[in-house]
Amino acid sequence: MSSVISELPAMDVTQFKHTPFYCSEENVYLLCKTLCENGVADANGSDLFVVFISNEKKQVPLWHQKASTRADGIVLWDYHVICVQRKKESDSEPLVWDLDSTLPFPSPLASYVSQTTQPSFQLFAEYQRFFRIVHAPLFFKHFASDRRHMKEPDGSWTAQPPPYQAIVAQGKSCNNFSTLPLTILISSACFFLKDGVLHNLSEYITMSGTDTLSSLDPETVREAISQKLGVLVSHAQLQDLFTKLP
């Protein structure tokens, strides 16, 4: 893939629905839907990939984060979620959409990785980051979260939830759920779930180095990216993966 950088200008992050400090997976879900609706991405999200960042310890250091109180912008997240856009028929570099970053929105993948993960910074092994890349159409179809991870043992919220409904998996009564406009998604009362799934966030953020792809050959990547939970790769494999996607 060419290193030509997309000419898409920086966009106003305030155009996108975003609840700071709350469920970055929901923020990215709505971000992807908006990119599809406003024509920046393909209508079905085929050029978008949802990327979960975490590790076994659930402690991943990322720089240039709005939530930081430090000059370098570092935050130790339990997990973080971003969107990467890769135009299949384009020579432009993939773009990263991160609602929680102080970097340009969007940012070229190479620049984002360099500045956000600071690869020259020596980390203890337990803080190494892993990346789960999920094709957006599959994410729309399968992901579900009832926000239970945002509750205290007594049932109270750790932070005030956003006003829109929690994300549900595509179900029989909502067989076009992944193509519904964002305005309908936010007000939707449709709760018929695929296979009865209410919450599967843990499947996406559970990561181990032993589960990363052993090879990035095209056939292995093609098969893995077609799966519900996508591809799990190491930091060293991340950028190369986006050159191997079908």
Automatic annotation (TrEMBL):
Domain Protein N-terminal glutamine amidohydrolase alpha beta roll per the UniProt entry, residue ranges: 18-240
One Pfam match: Nt_Gln_amidase
Catalysis: reaction(s): N-terminal L-glutaminyl-[protein] + H2O = N-terminal L-glutamyl-[protein] + NH4(+)
Keyword Hydrolase: yes
InterPro entries: N_Gln_amidohydro_ab_roll_sf, NTAQ1, Prot_N_Gln_amidohydro_ab_roll
Keyword Manganese on entry: no
EC id: 3.5.1.122
GO MF, one example: protein-N-terminal glutamine amidohydrolase activity
Family per similarity comment: Belongs to the NTAQ1 family.
Protein name as catalogued: Protein N-terminal glutamine amidohydrolase
Organism for this UniProt entry: Eruca vesicaria subsp. sativa (Garden rocket)
